[in-house]
Amino acid sequence: MQVPNRKHWKSIAQRFETLWNLPNCIGAIDGQHVRIEKFANSGSFNFNYKLYHSTVLLACCDADGLFTMIETSYTGRNNDGGIFKASAMKYWIQSVELDNPTPRTINL
């Protein structure tokens, strides 16, 4: 899966504003626990707060719900924020140099 380039990020942001009235949004990020069988000799590394063993899929979607970036293989005991902080996704998003828009009020 290719990392979106500057032009793609801008079109994602425009689509979020058009569909959802969310200016300057370049993606929606969430994590999903995928239930697995306990790995041999893994202890509690994959045991999560939902009381089963899992691995976590962290994904970023565009305004239409299509994946733009995914990261997998994080242990189930980690939360979304911790995974994002350690992920390559964070660095890709931080490296995007979009034109900083003028601040404005969101129309509700």
From TrEMBL:
Organism placement in taxonomy: Eukaryota, Metazoa, Ecdysozoa, Arthropoda, Hexapoda
Name of the molecule in the record: Protein ALP1-like
InterPro entries: HARBI1_dom
Domain DDE Tnp4: 29-89
Entry annotated with the keyword Metal-binding: yes
Cofactor(s) needed for function: a divalent metal cation
Keywords: Metal-binding
Any one GO MF annotation of this record: metal ion binding
Highest taxon above the source species: Eukaryota
